[in-house]
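PROTEIN FOLDING TASK:
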Amino acid sequence: YTAVAFALAILLPACADPDSGPSERAFGTHVGAFEIVVPAAKPTIQSAIDDPACLVVRLTLGTFTEKLTVKRTLTLAGSKFGEFTTVLQAPADATAIITVEGRRVRLKVTNLELRGPGLAGSLRGIDVLKNARVTVRNAVFRAMRPETIGGGEGFVALHVGVPTGIQVGLA
């Protein structure tokens, strides 16, 4: 039964809410909303993000070392099992783990640990640019590198560029 449910979750239209149960995901009512499981269906997170048919990128438990660029609306959902979670590890050359940019672009991030590579240079967890919007739920930011902020150093988990009518809130 588990293998069948897993195969259905990959192949059939999915509900856009990544927190819904397996039967809701596999038999969702949101026609055209497809979920891709990484690494089962695509080798990298970025390849799933770049697939225009994908609205939900679901990551299995484990550590993924990638820097991502999101230029369209989607959900990036990690997995959680007890104290274990999906980790998105920044490559050594990254300035941001996730860059989200573009007018009307919406990114929902759930059940992820975003982890920096250390303390050399500066690193942002999520860089939000060009009027994009990001919702972060059930996520942890660890080992972000320091960045100069107003003459001092600080750690930037979420950076919003060019503030025009920005609303920041907790969900």
